[in-house]
Design brief:
about 5% helix, four-stranded antiparallel β-sheet, about 45% strand, mainly beta
Length: about 120
């Protein structure tokens, strides 16, 4: 599997919470840095959050304090916990492997690949 597989999206009211999951093959071996992005209708895809293999995290200003990224390396999974959701968080959410210290082609081929995304809809 080259593309990551995202899940966990849904429809919630403003103020609600969701937890997104992203499964990427060989995460533990390839030691990927991972990122979440989102794309709202009519907008460009934008960065949401990232987590390095050593656990260092970054967030877009728009989600700081509300979203939390985490990883379960043994389960090849990255999570995005989203609290205090706002209508402007409505978007398709995607994850991506950005970086790997491994030179194996099996690891390199997943860098930059997009999954099918998972849709988050927040109503006011």
């Amino acid at each position: 599997q080259v593309q990551p597989v995202e899940s966990g999206g849904g429809s919630v009211q403003a103020g609600g919470s969701l937890r997104l999951s992203c499964v990427v093959s060989d995460y533990s071996y390839c030691r990927y840095d991972m990122s979440w992005y989102r794309q709202a209708p009519g907008n460009e895809r934008e960065f949401v959050s990232s987590i390095a293999i050593d656990g260092v995290t970054t967030y877009a200003d728009s989600v700081k304090g509300r979203f939390t990224i985490s990883q379960d390396i043994a389960e090849n999974t990255v999570f995005l916990r989203m609290n205090s959701l706002k209508p402007e968080d409505t978007a398709m959410y995607y994850c991506q492997a950005n970086k790997s210290p491994r030179g194996d082609i099996s690891c390199r081929r997943r860098l930059g690949a997009w999954g099918q995304g998972t849709l988050v809809t927040v109503s006011s």
